[in-house]
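Retro notes, structure queue

What went well: the backlog is down to a handful. What didn't: a couple of records were mislabeled last round, so from now on we paste the full input next to the output in the thread. Example, using Ubiquitin carboxyl-terminal hydrolase from Mytilus edulis:
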Amino acid sequence: MNHVKDGKTLTNENVEHDVEMENHLKTEEDQERGEDANMIPVNGDTDNEKGANNQEEDMEGDESRAETTFTYTIENISKLKDSILSPSCMVRNLPWKVLAMPRWSQNPERHNQKTLGLFLQCNGDSDSTSWSCNATAAIKIITHNDAEPFTRKIQHLFYSKENDWGYSHFVSWNELMDPAKGFVKDDKITIEVHVKADAPHGVSWDSKKHTGFVGLKNQGATCYMNSLLQTLYFTNKLRKATYLMPTESDDPEKSVPLSLQRVFYELQFGDKPVGTKKLTKSFGWETFDTFMQHDVQELCRVLLENMESKMKDTVVDGTIPRLFEGKMLSYIRFYESFDDYVKQESLEGDNKYDAGDYGLQEAEKGVVFVSFPPILHLHLLRFMYDPMADAYVKINEKFEFPERLCLDKYQNKKDKTPANYVLHAVLVHSGDNHGGHYVVYINPKGDGKVCDQYEASTTTFLKLKCA
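Corresponding output:
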């Protein structure tokens, strides 16, 4: 695949699966930030807050998830005098909490009005100063009647000095306690938070422990290669066949199959990100080659050809064509049948018989597929020539991939094995036709839970929809 294309891999169902401030600033002006609906969310100080629960409990669910919704109920709200923290909820393996605090506005126009401040806190108990995490969230006070919940949204880069973000005057106390609003029931309010976070930085994270997978180290510009290697690794029958290639007598520094076996083995059984320097060295690459983005489709072709050659006359001979090759048939179909050609015709006027020339026949030309392979690689042409710019430009239109795909109707005749495919992986390129970055989204078990391999030590799961 060229680095202006996206690619996707679909796996036949019949193939085996292993597979977002204020630091409580003391000035009256700053303390007034947050009253209006269009105000900017600010940071809240949590140094002296009391926890809602002495023993914080993690919310249920996958701790490495990218987003979730959690709720927190504050009891005896009418008597709330001090700041209070909710139990933690894990997102991206970081603890997220709701910080609630009663506030007093010092603005004379508001006549010393009492308000409720609400903030979202991230990683508040950590002593580390190197971490950061960008996130968006919606903070909502649930209503107990037909009224709409009161919601405000935030977006923030959380880090050690600004580990909480929200509204110091989320809602006025009078409005909060107004029975017509429906916020309070039995002297309780319920706060709901939906948080969506990007992958954190500067956080010690055990990818193997949390996801069961490890990533590949980027040598400089080898994201395209890493994306391809992860895709091939999760092609289970190919991985098994790779292990069976005879490499005992190979030169360790020059053997591509042996180096590939090492990478696959470490991906499967290692606990840390896997290096690929020995593999690229076996390609004959120098260091500068790893800082150049090569054509991923060409790399895929060359790598598979190398493996196919190594598999000849072994127990895994023919694995590559069996997994990746299909057959198609070109055809020309005449509108006129032979019967029409020989039928009797009245030769009159301009249609008089000319024995020396039969004329041209209309025809259809196309392709039908005779058979499809168990592993189907589809490559999208993601660039086109722009005559105004006199250059090739990348096509960035949205292209959706179905989770399941049936290709029976495109076959010349129905095969014994239905051409039903499950979406297995999508290679995505961000950038332009001169370069960019590759990531791959892999569906290892065919269950819709996708392994997002985009950094050496980061593996996350999300729902695969489109690219």
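Agreed that this is the format going forward. Reviewer comment attached to the example: The first helix runs from residue 28 to 31.
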